[in-house]
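Fill-in record for Acyl-CoA ligase (Acyl-CoA synthetase).
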Amino acid sequence: MSKVTEEIYSVRKLQALSSLASKDPAAFWAQQVDLIDWFQRPAKVLEGSPPTERWFAGGLMNVSYNAVDRHLRDKADKVAFYWTNESLDYRAITFRELYYQVNRAAYVLRQLGVKRGDVVSMIMPSIPEAVYFGLAVHRLGAILAIHYVGLSDDVMAFRLQDAGSKVLVVASKGFRAGQEIRIKDIADRVLNNFKTPVEKVLVVSRGFSDFNVNGSRDVVYEDIAPRGKVYVPPEPVDASDVGTIYYTSGTTGRPKGITQTQGGYAVALNWTFKALFNLGPSDVWWTISELGWPVWPMANLYTAPVMGVTAVLFEGFVGQRPDLFAKVVERFGVTHVWSSTTTLYTLKGLGSESVTGGDTSTLRIILNTGEPLNVGAWQWFRENLPNTYIGDAYWMTEHLSPIAATPYGIAEIPFRPGSAGIAFSPTRVLIVDDEGKQLPPGNKGYIVLSPYTPALGKMWNDPNYERYIKTYWSRFPGYFYTGDYGYMDEDGYLYVLGRADDVIATTGQRIGTMEVESTIGTHPAVAEVAAASMPLPGGKGSALLAFVVLRPGYQPSDQLAEDIKAYARNAGYIVDRVVFVRKLPKTKSGKIMRRLLRAALNQEPLGDTSTLDDPAAFEDTRRMIEQVR
Ligand code: ATP
Ligand code: MG
């Protein structure tokens, strides 16, 4: 542990660390270099400056070597991964087994022609094989692009094309919410009906045989995997080479293809989780995320195995049974949970059994990521899990070390409900007005960054950074624009109030969606809520609408709508209408797509809906909107 890190124990010190770090970001990151093993240490930490900087260029390393080979010495018999599912079936994989399996997977990929710099795509559920192949891709120095299960066929085809992927790795099928998802059939449909660069499909059969095998294209992994032990040397790659392509969630528009590097990214993530989690040798880390959301690979490929920590892979939907979350924690003695905000809302919606229906006494921290965690949900977790720290980390696919967070590892800072925590990396966070002028604490405005992290992504297929600069660096020259709206308090706590595009302008006021939602979210009848506005005729400002999903046991009624409005009014928000809906429109990563509500309210085109999770439910909502307009 670096000296600076050791000394931090309070908010004040944390701020000192971040300001020290931001004065000399290269020196800060130089101290973190040895979190991973290098074949050749980088001579220089930072080359150039953002937006066109390169971190650790010339350093040679391999993520797969860091995740498996280096643990053989002292952790070979330690469990690297537990796998479980909605039925609590069980597998355990040691680091020795992981090493063996990653080499087998890499051997087969190499036979299929995969080499350094190639892009390999993957569509899989959260199973150990996804870890084997994810790490195997990196072992060969190739680039990994993971796609969601359940994207529409045309979107899937576009992504394969955009990524330029000649090899696609899929599981025959996956299971979620009690349903079988026939992944290989999806791949067949996409490849048979659209033009893509895919030449080979490698199918992990999972013991099933009820899928088509196209002779010249498909290869069944279990048929060709070497029986005995094989060794594939890890390819030394430049730390600043592209390692991963992620597509953003599509919450605010068409998803953007973002790259992260092979090495700088791994350093940034390993520092991040050391600071956030302070994991010990016997801790167990469960990340609740689908494979297609960056959160899954961040934890299960680039951090937990690199740290030599035991992780839990969960296939399915944790809301499938009221006590499932608690039972998984109990079964594996989970100490650290990293979860999407939507999952936390699901647990709250299920009632206290979700966190007390099993022995959850091992649980030290639940870390939220994805959206601002509303105060009502935070309170609910505090009441139901009084001994668990509910932490937060605010980041984005483009900036994958936290912009602000509550770092439980280096200082257990007091949580302030509604805040995502404070900046603690060299990245500087500022709030600016429409003209880009910095605003003092307490004032609401746009969140912009002077970003100094090796986890600052670039855009895929954009060699001269043109699109990247236009997209992120042109709205406020000199700053990276997050697209988010919020404020900072006197102590440096950052409050993300929502997306700048979603800001609601009522009479003389600009309100972030989270402000209203946090209030309404504490009403006892409310499971979930999304706020959106609609301009009133004659330029008379906007009407504020609240879309509400009720908790089990509550029925929609005019009386309840009035009650919710009165509740909001008490906190100073005039809600013009409460619309009860079955489901909120969400992305595949579970984020509320308020822009779709707004578009429907304003009778505008919906724009990109490629990541909309449940189009049928949104159609219902749209019909309701037609009625209330
Ligand atoms: P797109 O960029 O395609 O519109 P997206 O912004 O949702 O989608 P992601 O990169 O997955 O794509 O999400 C980053 C965004 O998520 C941030 O800009 C912020 O709005 C929100 N976010 C993430 N974590 C938090 C958090 N802990 N608190 C508040 N907001 C968060
Ligand atoms: Mg975004």
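KEY FINDING: Residues 248-253, 255-256, 368-372, 392-397, 420, 482-484, 496, 499, 589, 591 surround adenosine-5'-triphosphate (ligand 1) (CB under 6 Å).
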